[in-house]
Structures are given as C-alpha cells and as structure tokens.
Design brief:
By secondary structure, this protein is α/β, with parallel strands linked by helices. The chain contains 14 helices and 15 strands. Strands 14-13-12-11-7-10-9-8-15 form a nine-stranded mixed sheet. It is globular and about 70 Å long.
Length: 398
C-alpha cells in the first residue's frame, strides 16, 4: 500500500469517463500514479496497451498488489457492488456519482467502509468549482447569516447518450426506461449540502418529489431512430423529462432540486441559489459562456434606505477577499482540469485523505445521503408525491 512518500497507485475502472481521470492524474504527478485500467471493451483497453496494465476482468484487477486504490467510473448500477468488492480486497475507493442505486446499497456501502476502515470518497466534482467554494467560504465566514433556502438544477440533454450507434439502449437509456425517479441528484445536491453542513451541523428530514410527463425522448426517437418504433412511444420511457425534488432539513432549511436529462437544450445547464438572512447568491443559466455568478450582501451591496436590496453584484468582486484556500493555492493547476477544476481537486483530496488516514471532504455518509435521494424520490412518486423520511446513515456526529 502507499506510503507518505510514494504516489497513490490507482486503477481506473470504466474506460469512457475513466480516461478523464487518467489525464487529470498526470497533472498531480507525485501525488497519484495511474498504474492500470479495467474495462470489458477490448477497444478501450487497446488504447492503453504498453502504457498501463490492462484488465478486462474486475476481479482479476483486485488481485494486483501494485494497485492501492480503484477509481470506479462504470455504469451507475455497478458502483455499489464494485465498491464493496474493492474494499473487501483491501483497496481504497473513489467512486463516480451516484454511489448507489437503492437504500439497501447505500447501507451496504457504508457498512463496508466501516468494516474495512479504508478511505472511500465519492467523486462529486461540482463541490470543488471555484464559485461554489467561494460561496462556501462566505457561508463559513458568516456573511449569509441564517440559511433558509437553497436550490440546484442539473439540466443536460443526454438523449444521444441513451443509445448506441446501432440503436440499442445504453445503461443511461436503460435507467431512463426502467424507473421514474430523480435519477441523477448529486451534481445539484452536493454543493448545497456542503453549504448547509448536511451530516455535520444539520440533517435532511423529509423529501417529496414531483415529475412532468415523458415526451422529449420519444420525440427524439421519432426523429432520429425511425426503425425503433418502441422508442417512439412515450409510455416506453418510465422516467419523466423533468423531476423536481423538495427536501426539508431538521433545522427548517428548504432545498429544491431539478434534474432534467431529456429536454432539448443548446448546452448543459447548472443553476444554483442560496438564501440567507443577510446574503443571497444566484448562479443563473444562460448562453455560453455561462453568466457571472451573482451575490447580494447586507451592508455591502446596493440597498435602499429602508433596507431593501436593490442590485446584484458579481461574485468576482469579492473573489480576492473570500477566495477559497484551495483555489488560492492550486487554481492555476486546477483550471486545466475538467468540470471547472473539480476533477483536479477530487483526485487531490482523495490522495491526501488516503495518505493522511482521514475521512475525505466527501465521505461515505455524504455519498449515501446524497445518493439516497434517487430511491426516496421513486418511493415518493409511487405513493402519490408523498413526503418520505430521509434516513440517517451516520451513526454519530463527527
């Protein structure tokens, strides 16, 4: 296993998304060394022949003593069981999002991490984007006062990713067909949870989910897959175009999430808001390049004599004063990585947590809580959009 002076030797499992980790790891030379790649597709393995160890079989990879940790970037349905197998084999785990697909899987992953005492982190890269971390710094410095509301939206037309070139369903297409739920909550939820201190100073209490009709994917299929008549029926697709989830925390903060990966949009949209008694943050969507994040701060931003806020300010105005230490120190290197620098900080944090023997910033309890929204949303919808209780996966306060 890795020592304090050796780079963390990782294997990437899952070629399509996993190759991005290989590129990012090379920007962290000295901290992480990619030694192997695992994928059942020979074409993806061929790309790395002679450069990395290649494994078509996951179980065989886990027997490699030169692998300290695995980065799991496989289809969502495989994340939990591969995580557990890796931990049982003595490997640290960095898992793509979400961490699990069911409440039982969430509990099983938590139990496996607790048994193994190894490092587990979920690779939620949105939490490490520069504006997100700047807002987190401002929250920690007290500028927002008492928090009352937060929201996150992930709107990304993924319909071309639902189908293979031959017209068969990919794993994403299977998900969209099989279950009506908020299927991909963590990009919207992760930053919000970090701002609110979920699993630290506050906890989720109840959640309920609503959904639109299903129309966009069938429309896409009629236009682009004329030989696949089944896909052209809205009834074929169990999941809706848009799903909205509402969560209330134990301290009374309201969280709104919207996930839509079927509607036609010119570009991927992420939108975040945070409301406190003394400040308000808004990162709106819009045409590329994405609009400037906005902030209003009591006592600093334009205000009428009666105290009513009158004008947003660019978040960048306060960048020098409240830039997060991670971006202040490593911003130049991180800016070259994917997801707004998030990929860089995910790998850096994981490697440091392993080396220092501590819990990472996004630990297994966060992974289970954030991922649980998918099965809980399905339960809420099946019951007629009823509120359901959010379980606690952490047995004690850190």
């Amino acid at each position: 296993m890795t020592s304090a002076t050796q780079p963390l030797r990782i294997a990437v499992v899952g070629g399509r998304r996993g190759f991005a980790y290989i590129r990012t790891a090379r920007a962290l030379s000295g901290d992480i060394e990619v030694t192997a790649v695992c994928d059942p597709d020979p074409a993806r393995l061929e790309r790395w022949q002679g450069e990395l160890k290649t494994y078509p079989d996951f179980a065989q990879l886990l027997e490699d003593p030169d692998v300290d940790a695995v980065c799991i970037a496989t289809p969502v349905s495989m994340h939990a069981r591969q995580t557990i197998a890796a931990l049982e084999a003595g490997k640290h785990v960095l898992s793509e999002v979400p961490a699990a697909s069911s409440l039982d899987e969430c509990r099983d992953v938590v139990a496996a991490v607790e048994r193994s005492q190894l490092t587990y982190m979920m690779a939620e890269n949105y939490c490490f984007m520069e504006p997100i971390l700047q807002v987190q710094q401002m929250v920690e410095d007290g500028l927002f006062g008492d928090l009352v509301h937060a929201s996150g939206s992930y709107i990304h037309d993924c319909r071309t990713l639902f189908f293979t070139e031959s017209g068969d369903l990919t794993w994403r297409g299977q998900l969209h067909r099989q279950r009506l739920a908020n299927q991909y909550p963590t990009h919207s939820l992760g930053p919000v949870c970090r701002w609110l201190g979920i699993n630290r100073s506050d906890f989720f209490d109840t959640t309920a989910t609503w959904h639109s009709r299903s129309a966009a994917t069938a429309h896409f299929a009629r236009q682009h897959l004329p030989d696949r008549a089944a896909y052209a029926a809205s009834e074929f697709w169990a999941n809706a175009d848009t799903v909205s989830t509402c969560i209330r925390t134990e301290q009374g903060v309201l969280v709104d999430l919207r996930v839509d990966w079927a509607s036609a949009r010119p570009q991927q949209v992420t939108r975040f808001e945070l409301q406190g008694t003394r400040a308000s943050f808004c990162w709106p969507d819009g045409p590329s390049p994405k609009p400037e994040p906005l902030i209003w701060i009591e006592g600093r931003s334009p205000t009428k004599d009666d105290g009513v806020a009158t004008e947003w300010e660019p978040l960048s105005k306060y960048r020098e004063e409240f830039q997060h230490p991670l971006w202040r120190q490593f911003g130049d290197r991180a800016g070259q990585a994917g997801h707004g620098g998030g990929d860089f900080f995910v790998l850096k944090e994981f490697a440091e947590a392993v080396r220092e023997g501590r819990a990472p910033l996004i630990d297994v309890y966060d992974a289970a809580t954030w991922s649980s929204i998918t099965p809980l949303s399905a339960e809420s919808i099946a019951g007629g959009n009823v509120p359901v209780k959010v379980p606690r996966f952490r047995s004690r306060i850190p």
